[in-house]
Write a structure and sequence with these properties.
By secondary structure, this protein is an alpha/beta fold. Helix 1 packs across helix 2 and helix 3 packs across helix 4. The relative contact order is 0.12.
């Protein structure tokens, strides 16, 4: 009961903090590359009450990009960024596309920005930037990706990947990582091995990046004794956590369960699944990182 009252008090603070925010700060930093790094754009969200030794979250957007057609940060990224910063986290949302001259890659057959190449480099560039900030708890930075960025997250923490070794030599390691609806097929086939506590959050009905390969990946990693977990949401599709959206069919992207483009894929929000995921994210962080001041909203 005492713990619940404490969380409720922190949640009440979160509401007042949200009302007082002025928006994120636009920052720049290089990707982690041995030569010719890309100068990336990031959006830095800070808690209203400044303090040192803050935990932080790096957010990696999906294939639709960071910025929508109105020139605003996409609703899904903004939702999580504001939610985390309300609870006392520093958040750095990384734009991997616009600095490279692309708004989105969902519809591109030959994607110029890859989950296995640019996205992990960008994640570690963001981590390096945050670790240079005096107000960050350097050992409590979490990577959280969505769709294209979620798959990039998995590549970033895969100990079999060269980027893991490069980052490790540079003293860069995330405290934990979370992927919302990643593509797990290739990673599972290649026996990806997460090197940090790792959680996958995915809709059971996802027909763009199906859950089954992710379940296999997590089960295999668990059998090897790794700290991993998968959270599945009944009746939820790709992008289930984006508030203010409804399920629709996209006919302009590949369906991984059925390659017939005419059938497309389902995308859109599911309030019940989103709220469950918010609770699961809190549980994951509390179990693996800190006693998280993070509770489910009504």
């Amino acid at each position: 009961m005492k713990h619940l009252l404490s969380l409720l008090a922190l949640f009440s603070f979160g509401i007042s903090a949200a009302q007082a925010k002025t928006g994120p700060e636009k920052v720049q930093f290089p990707s982690l590359e041995e030569s010719s790094p890309t100068m990336l754009t990031g959006y830095l969200y800070k808690p209203v009450k400044p303090a040192d030794n803050k935990p932080a979250i790096v957010l990696a957007h999906g294939c639709s990009g960071m910025i929508d057609n109105k020139g605003e940060i996409r609703a899904g990224i903004a939702h999580w960024a504001e939610r985390f910063s309300d609870k006392g986290y520093v958040v750095l949302a990384v734009d991997s596309f616009n600095p490279r001259g692309h708004k989105e890659v969902c519809t591109q057959t030959e994607r110029p920005i890859l989950e296995s190449r640019e996205r992990p480099r960008d994640a570690y560039g963001a981590l390096a930037y945050l670790q240079k900030q005096s107000f960050i708890a350097k050992d409590k930075v979490v990577l959280m990706g969505f769709s294209h960025g979620a798959t990039g997250t998995l590549y970033a923490i895969n100990t079999r990947e060269a980027i893991w070794k490069t980052a490790d030599k540079a003293g860069l390691r995330f405290a934990a990582a979370m992927s919302f609806y990643p593509g797990c097929t290739a990673a599972n086939r290649n026996r990806a091995t997460p090197g940090v506590p790792y959680g996958i959050f995915i809709g059971e009905a996802d027909d763009w990046t199906p859950a089954a390969p992710c379940v296999e990946l997590i089960e295999r990693a668990k059998a090897a004794g790794l700290n991993v977990h998968i959270y599945q949401y009944h009746g939820a599709y790709h992008g289930f956590d984006v508030p203010g959206t409804t399920v629709r069919v996209r006919n302009d992207v590949r369906n991984r369960r059925n390659p017939d483009l005419a059938k497309g894929v389902h995308v859109g929000g599911n309030d019940e699944a989103r709220k469950a995921a918010e609770k699961d994210v809190a549980e994951f962080l509390e179990r693996n990182i800190i006693k998280a001041s993070f509770t489910q909203q009504d």
